[in-house]
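[Help] Beginner question about ligand-bound structures

Sorry if this is basic. My supervisor gave me a protein sequence and a SMILES string for 1,3-dihydroxyacetonephosphate and asked me to "get the holo structure". I don't really know what that means in practice or what format the answer should be in. Inputs are pasted below exactly as I got them.
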Amino acid sequence: MNIALIAHDKKKDDMINFSIAYSHILNSHQLFATGTTGKLISKATGLNIHKFQSGPLGGDQQIGAMIANNKMDMVIFFRDPLTAQPHEPDVSALMRLCDVYQIPLATNIAASEIFLHGLERGDLEWREILKERQQKEGNN
Ligand SMILES: O=C(CO)COP(=O)(O)O
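Answer (accepted):
No worries, everyone starts somewhere. Holo just means with the ligand present. The predicted complex, written as structure tokens, is below.
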């Protein structure tokens, strides 16, 4: 599965701890992140992560583009609900696209833990079936 990992500045410590705790699950998936979040996670865990631009410089939009192209299966986004973000429109757009395309979106550590347990259990296998079907339809 393709998984996006994103954290606002005040949530980056949570993201580092989360990715260390769940690296045994994350390491069997393709990981993508906004720039700074990605750098911190790979430094802390050694996980291989594709890093996009930093969020305020367009990273959220790049992840949004993957969602719109049906290339993202899950988004884990530790939002800071108490600090205004200069790129708030990008943040809202990313979350909106998750709803447009029915992509599971966890916006805090508690929900993310449930997501990863579900992922380990195979709860998201419908995504692979859906993508295979869409690929076949695209080829016909
Ligand atoms: O701002 C962000 C998401 O909206 C996160 O970006 P960084 O990971 O580059 O700090």
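A couple of things worth pointing out: The radius of gyration is 14 Å. The mean pLDDT is 96. Feel free to follow up in the thread.
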